[in-house]
Amino acid sequence: MLGRLVPMNNVVRLDAVSKVYGRGQSAVAALREVTIGIPKGSFTAVMGPSGSGKSTFLHCAAGLDRPTSGSVRLGDTELSAMNETELTELRRERIGFVFQAFNLVPSLTVTQNITLPLRLAGVRTDEAWLRGIVERVGLTGRTDHRPAQLSGGQQQRVAIARALVARPEVVFGDEPTGALDMMTARDVLALLREVVDGLGQTVVMVTHDPIAASYADTVLFLADGRIVDSVTAPTVDMVAERMTRLGAYV
Ligand SMILES: Nc1ncnc2c1ncn2[C@@H]1O[C@H](COP(=O)(O)OP(=O)(O)OP(=O)(O)O)[C@@H](O)[C@H]1O
What we know:
This protein has 250 residues and is an alpha/beta fold. The chain is 34% helix and 26% strand. Residues 12-249 form the ABC transporter domain.
């Protein structure tokens, strides 16, 4: 049924990925044989009831955690074969992250926060690219400010710029609008949409919010560790209806 979601140009591919936490009687199967491809230049939202495996999916797909079995590939790179140092390097150089808590360094300016991943990787900043990113996220004129001088939405824009600065193959978001009020959240979601449409970036975002999910091209629904449904060109109502059917709001 999900075959049409797995074309050849996948940036990320999970094959039969399972994740079991703990052992014996206390073992919890958080993911069960999940197979999915994330096409290049797509915006994917991952939804599901609490405990359905969303965070585990994101962590396995992004090389933050290892599956118990199965394969995770970023481009042609098989992640399960990598050691911790290699995974750290891969995350730094090839993956962008945007979290609910913006995770900015308070003592650094906007520009210094954005370019931090490059400095950690020992890579020179491409000034023209940086200017373009800063402009795209709407922070021109704020580059010397510190995080405390910015609103929540502006801080998340810094985090998005930081996620984009190394030209990653994919950006993973874990509830990126979870800490924002609705209006600000919509601005940030529109920015993520624009990053996909304008830069061809691939974005995968875990969210509880049907409005947030409606900005994506495809919504994947997890239940009990499995992808049980997907919706393309989602509307808020379609997403809310699916979530209700999965028992998320009852
Ligand atoms: N470190 C862990 N040790 C043991 N069990 C865990 C661990 N992390 C997650 N789990 C269990 O795995 C299952 C999936 O958890 P996960 O956090 O991926 O779900 P989720 O959909 O992200 O939930 P939520 O929406 O509440 O954040 C749950 O049953 C959870 O209790």
